[in-house]
Amino acid sequence: MKDFQLRFIKLAIESKALQFGDFTLKSGRNSPYFFNASALLSFGHISELSEILLLKTKDLNIKFDMIFGPAYKGIFLGSLLAAELSKQSSMPVCFNRKEVKNHGEGGSLIGATPNGRVLIIDDVLSSGLAITEACDYLAPFDVDIAGALVTLNRQEKGQDSDQMAADELREKGTEIFQIISLDDLINAESLIDKTNLIKMQEYREIYQGV
């Protein structure tokens, strides 16, 4: 595991963005861990989070012209990354509203008009629905999806098969990148106690795609 990945796990635990216990997910599954990216904002170590995002994009070594952060968690993640990249050269960013605005500037898009190679950024990849919706939102624009970066890939089954969501999305043309995955959490023995590691391992064996 790379240093910025260990830093992110430590930051997630300290901020309580990553918690362990018994959680019911949106999917209805009972999970021994839960990730809430909003807690990273409450914790206030924004500069460290920004640096980790920047290090990940440098590690990927991919080219993109702008960033799209889908509402809601992708908004602040995309903005933080764009701010870091803009220290070197201009990096436009945009995001969508959940509800269409019918006054003022109107519409559902805020920021730059999507164009060129776009990197999508969001907090968690579970079933892949949020990334699929982001791709659908961008489809009418003159864009090429450079890929989707998530802070945590839960490595769970996708919507249409027993494959992992990341593999389903790749087959549809969207490459998935992550700062950390469930595998990385399970391997973080120096940061997470053994009991929680075992519970996550058991959860993975039930819900992880092939």
Explain this structure:
The chain is an alpha/beta fold. It has one domain (3-207): 3-Layer(aba) Sandwich (Rossmann fold), CATH 3.40.50. The protein is 39% helix and 28% strand. It is built from eight helices and eight strands; from the N terminus they run αββααβαβββαβαβαα. It has helices at 3-14, 38-43, 46-60, 73-85, 129-138, 165-171, 182-186, 194-207; strands at residues 18-24, 30-35, 66-68, 93-101, 107-111, 115-125, 142-153, 176-181. The strands form two sheets. A six-stranded mixed sheet has the order 5-4-3-6-7-8, sandwiched between helices. The chain has a two-stranded antiparallel ribbon with strand order 1-2. β3, α4 (73-85) and β4 form a beta-alpha-beta unit. The protein is globular. The two termini are 22 Å apart. The mean pLDDT is 93.
Task: Give keywords.
alpha/beta, Rossmann fold, six-stranded mixed β-sheet, two-stranded antiparallel ribbon, 210 residues
Put the structure in a nutshell:
By secondary structure, the protein is α/β, with parallel strands linked by helices. Helices cover about 40% and strands about 30% of the residues.
Name the poorly predicted regions: none
Major sheet: 6 strands, mixed
The average pLDDT value, as a whole number, equals 93
Distance between the termini: 22 Å
Portion of residues in helices?
25-40%
Task: Please write out the topology.
Layout: H1 3-14, E1 18-24, E2 30-35, H2 38-43, H3 46-60, E3 66-68, H4 73-85, E4 93-101, E5 107-111, E6 115-125, H5 129-138, E7 142-153, H6 165-171, E8 176-181, H7 182-186, H8 194-207
Parallel strand pairs: 3-4, 3-6, 6-7, 7-8
Antiparallel strand pairs: 1-2, 4-5
Helix pairs in contact: 1-3, 3-4
